[in-house]
Write a structure and sequence with these properties.
The chain is an alpha/beta fold. The protein folds into two domains: about 5-105 and about 300-315, 2-Layer Sandwich (ornithine cyclodeaminase, domain 1), CATH 3.30.1780.10; about 115-300, Rossmann fold. It has eleven helices and 15 strands. It has helices spanning about 5-15, 15-30, 105-120, 135-145, 160-175, 185-190, 235-240, 245-250, 255-260, 275-280, 300-315, and strands spanning about 5, 35, 40-45, 50-60, 65-70, 85-90, 95-100, 130-135, 155-160, 180, 195, 215-220, 240-245, 270-275, 290-295. The strands form two sheets. The protein has an eight-stranded parallel sheet with strand order 10-9-8-11-12-15-13-14. Strands 1, 2, 3, 4, 5, 6 and 7 form a seven-stranded mixed sheet that branches. Strand 9, helix 5 and strand 10 (about 180) form a beta-alpha-beta unit. Helix 2 crosses helix 3, helix 2 (about 15-30) crosses helix 11 (about 300-315) and helix 8 packs across helix 9 (about 255-260). The longest helix is centred in the middle third of the chain and has 20 residues, at about 105-120. Pfam families: OCD_Mu_crystall. This is Ornithine cyclodeaminase family protein.
């Protein structure tokens, strides 16, 4: 029987520490080639800005495979609807369907978990101030995740919507977390050791000229489109860029494809995948003054990592003798 797992069950069953551990393991397996996550396939809807993506992954250790169906529809913002919605199908390696999962909570949790894994591997050990550019649903999740890998003393928030930034700051202050709302993205960058860009921007919200030696950036929010980006070419040029998956970055990340097209960098400038750093195949941060940037597109393997936690918690019997 196929399990139907709503977002509420994901929130109840998957803790952030478990998600961080699962995502780190997934990236190690990708680097060790016991798991695979090819670049997403995509199709655009004719006469529309809607794009539909398939994000597949397979893990020979867990014995599971998955496919995430992601709808990226910018025009939904004008309809007061989510711009991205998704569902994740999970099967055994024998092809038996096991679960269909609402992708919303999985995406939010695994995205923040991946940023925490990258921050732990790349940020300076003494990094204490977290800057959040964007105050939407990913912001609180990122604070929760990154506070598990660094001892934060302050959070700095900037959002194009001042009301949203103020609301998030109020929530964090009630929890005893020192929080400052600033008037510009530049202020947030200049006051922070770790910066997370969490916006669906088409144009850069972070400029490389603002960065100082030793900072770490998680570039997270830009949609998977070759003409969308949150960080400018100078930021990419100045940083050691770590990729979640190289194939996806070169297929759909405007953050790296635009500077490549401009000639600001060449492909050799792009550093290793995160899993290669975690396995010690190659270094992440090479010295304390280096600027590091995690190019976070999201991966079907990250989705599968959380799906594996859910399926393992409530395994279903695999049907036998059933023809497709």
């Amino acid at each position: 029987m196929i399990r139907l797992i709503p977002s509420s069950e994901v929130d109840e069953c998957v803790s952030m520490p478990d998600a961080i551990a699962a995502v780190a393991t997934a990236h190690r397996r990708l680097a060790a080639r016991t798991a695979a996550a090819p670049a997403p396939s995509s199709v655009a809807a004719p006469g529309s800005d809607a794009q539909f993506l398939g994000m597949s992954a397979v893990d020979s250790v867990s014995g599971l495979a998955s496919m995430k169906f992601l709808a990226d529809i910018p025009a939904n913002r004008e309809r007061a609807l989510p711009t991205q919605r998704s569902m994740i199908m999970v099967s055994s390696l024998h092809g038996a369907p096991l679960a269909l999962i609402d992708g919303g909570a999985v995406t939010r949790i695994r995205t923040a978990a991946a940023s925490a894994v990258a921050t732990d591997a790349l940020a300076r050990p003494d990094a204490r101030v977290l800057g959040l550019i964007g105050a939407g649903v990913l912001a609180e999740a990122h604070l929760e995740a990154i506070s598990l890998v660094r001892s934060l003393t302050r959070v700095v928030i900037w959002s194009r919507t001042a009301e949203r930034a103020g609301s998030l700051a109020a929530v964090l202050s009630q929890r005893g977390i020192p929080t400052t709302v600033v008037g510009s993205a530049r202020d947030a960058v200049e006051q922070s050791d770790i910066v997370c860009t969490l916006t669906p921007s088409r144009e850069p919200v972070l400029e490389g000229a603002w960065l100082r030696p030793g900072q770490h950036v998680n570039a997270v929010g830009a949609p998977p489109r070759a003409d969308h980006r949150e960080v400018d070419s100078e930021a990419v040029r100045r940083a050691r860029v770590i990729l979640d998956t190289r194939s996806a970055a070169l297929a759909e990340s405007g953050d790296v494809l635009i500077p490549l097209r401009e000639g600001s960098i060449d492909e050799a400038h792009l550093g290793p995948e995160l899993g290669e750093v975690l396995l010690g195949i190659t270094p992440g941060r090479r010295h304390l003054d280096e600027i590091t940037l995690f190019n976070s597109l999201g991966s079907g393997l990250q989705d599968l990592a959380l799906a594996s936690l859910l399926v393992s918690a409530h395994p279903a019997a695999e049907p036998r003798g059933t023809a497709a």
